[in-house]
Design goal:
Elements (H helix, E strand, L loop, with lengths): L3 H14 L3 E3 L11 E3 L1 H20 L11 E4 L8 H7 L1 H4 L1 E6 L6 E3 L28 E4 L3 E3 L9 E3 L5 H6 L1 H8 L5 E10 L14 E11 L4 H18 L7 E5 L11 E9 L2 E12 L1 H10 L5 E3 L4 E3 L2 E8 H12 E3 L7 E3 L10 E5 L6 H13 L4 E3 L5 H11 L3 E5 L1 H6 L1 E6 L5 E5 L3 H9 L2
Parallel strand pairs: 3-9, 19-20, 19-21
Antiparallel strand pairs: 1-2, 4-5, 4-6, 7-8, 9-10, 10-16, 11-12, 12-13, 13-16, 14-15, 17-18, 21-22, 22-23
The structure holds glycyl-adenosine-5'-phosphate.
Length: 451
């Protein structure tokens, strides 16, 4: 029987072997909580980011009652004035409870002891072996600290941003003044964030360096509940539209004291990974908490004059905040397929928009004039779609490689091509093959991929 742990192990092995994900600085033994994307992983992640940017920013969904709103992007610095993080509450309160073990010298998240194996006795969880000697929990601030400039003292302390959101809030007025946006509107940003997680875990799921895609959607306070529901549903649907099976995806409303102090309501989009249901994205009604915090700290006026309502107010904010690396891991997990009856049992069933390579072109053998037909075909296809050319190895092995990369279609040029101008098209999902005229490959891909 295949267990969930086996599945995760197979996914991790495939990702390493096929160049989706590597441990960071592996040749030096790696570093916990940091990861690198290889050639296939880089294309996959890029496609996910491009899908998000297109669907949310360039061509945003239409709001309730047919309201068409504006969405603009920013790309802010990772290191900001430390006052940003004082105002946002991160300096004072962005911490997890931590315990030390005096016996093994390990440090652990106090609220995850039940899920953390003891390093000295992995069959038991931390705290459950006779040898464990745990200290009282204390707060550990998750922000990475650094110094700016040549002087390294209290006055030059700065932080690597733990979220991209604050860059948006502190630029709210700049965007208002320069882009002629009117409420309701959104500002989007994607980029790196850093958190010095006490126990990074579950492959790339909880990392110390990761990317986020975040939207801060500004609206009138009286409309915040409506926009909250709108964004919660839009973001849930986005994942299903890109192929995350709906039974594995869940939208869960936060209740009671689970709500962050700044949020009026919040829901998580969760995915059922082999290691359990876990958060991909949070959608929160952050009220006017952040803008007011920055008004207080900076002394600058960040209110908005609504010329339709003839009213000045501090907008409320709805924030869909997702982790890009978690999305990558969810799309990889969902795509992973195993069918013993196939010559190539492992294949990655990526949605066409996300597949790192959309098509491959193979001459059956690298002689008999076949490369002369295949190479121009490849050159034509790659103008429009990510395409690979591979003239070597047995055809079965080449199909297997493309199946593991998740390439939807392979075109093979064989002896018959020279006679009647047709090529074989092989479908990744059912390994079926048909013949089409070689001049129709681009059109065929456009049609089948819907891109
Ligand atoms: N601005 C709000 C905010 O940052 P969050 O729930 O702390 O909220 C948002 O983070 C998203 O960022 C999470 O839903 C998750 O997808 C991603 N994320 C947070 N911590 C992460 C980590 N250590 N590794 C990978 N992704 C993480």
């Amino acid at each position: 029987m295949t267990t969930q742990a086996d599945t995760m192990e197979k996914i991790v092995a495939l990702c390493r072997r096929r160049g989706f994900i590597f441990g960071s600085s592996e040749i030096y033994g790696g570093i916990g909580g940091f990861w690198d994307y290889g050639p296939l992983g880089t294309e996959l992640k890029r496609n996910i980011k491009e899908a998000w940017w297109f669907d949310m920013v360039r061509n945003p969904p239409v709001g309730p009652g047919g309201v068409e709103f504006q969405m603009v992007g920013v790309d802010c610095s990772i290191i900001m004035n430390p006052k940003v993080w004082e105002a946002s509450g991160h300096v004072g309160g962005f911490s997890d409870p931590m315990v030390d073990c005096r016996h093994c010298k390990g440090r652990f998240r106090a609220d995850q002891l039940d899920e953390t194996p003891c390093p000295m006795k992995p069959s038991k969880m931390v705290g459950q072996s006779d040898k464990c000697e745990l200290t009282e929990p204390r707060a550990f601030n998750l922000m990475f600290q650094t110094y700016v400039g040549a002087l390294q003292d209290e006055t030059s302390i700065a932080y690597l941003r733990p979220e991209t959101a604050q860059g948006i809030f502190v630029n709210f007025k700049n965007v208002l003044d320069t882009s002629r946006v009117k409420l309701p509107f959104g500002i989007a940003q994607m980029g790196k964030s850093f958190r010095n997680e006490i126990n990074p875990r579950n492959y790339t799921f909880r990392s110390r360096e990761f990317e986020q895609y975040e939207i801060e959607f500004f609206c009138h306070p009286s409309e915040a509940d409506m926009w909250y529901e709108f964004w919660r549903d839009v973001r849930h649907r986005w994942y299903t539209d890109l192929g995350l099976e709906s039974e594995k995806l869940r939208l869960r409303e936060h209740v009671g004291d689970e709500l962050a102090h700044y949020a009026k309501s919040c829901a998580d989009v969760e995915y059922d990974f082999p290691f359990g249901l876990s958060e991909l994205e949070g959608i929160a009604n952050r009220t006017d908490f952040d803008l007011k915090a920055h008004i207080d700290k900076s002394g600058k006026d960040l209110s908005y004059f609504d010329d339709q309502r003839k009213e000045r107010y501090v907008p409320y904010v709805i924030e869909p905040s997702g982790g890009i690396d978690r999305s990558v891991l969810a799309f990889i997990t969902e795509a992973y397929s195993f069918d013993e009856s196939r010559a190539s049992p492992q294949f990655m069933k990526f949605h066409p928009r996300l597949a790192p390579i959309k098509a491959a072109v193979f001459p059956l053998v690298a002689k008999d004039g076949m490369p002369d037909i295949a190479e121009p075909m490849y050159r034509e296809i790659k103008k429009r779609f990510a395409c690979q050319y591979d003239p070597k190895q047995s055809i079965g092995k080449r199909y297997a490689r493309m199946d593991e990369a998740g390439t939807p279609f392979c075109f093979t040029i064989d002896g018959q091509t020279k006679e009647d101008g047709t090529v074989t098209v092989r479908d990744r999902d059912d390994a079926s093959q048909i013949r089409i005229d070689k001049s129709r490959c681009v059109e065929y891909l456009q049609d089948k991929l819907g891109l």
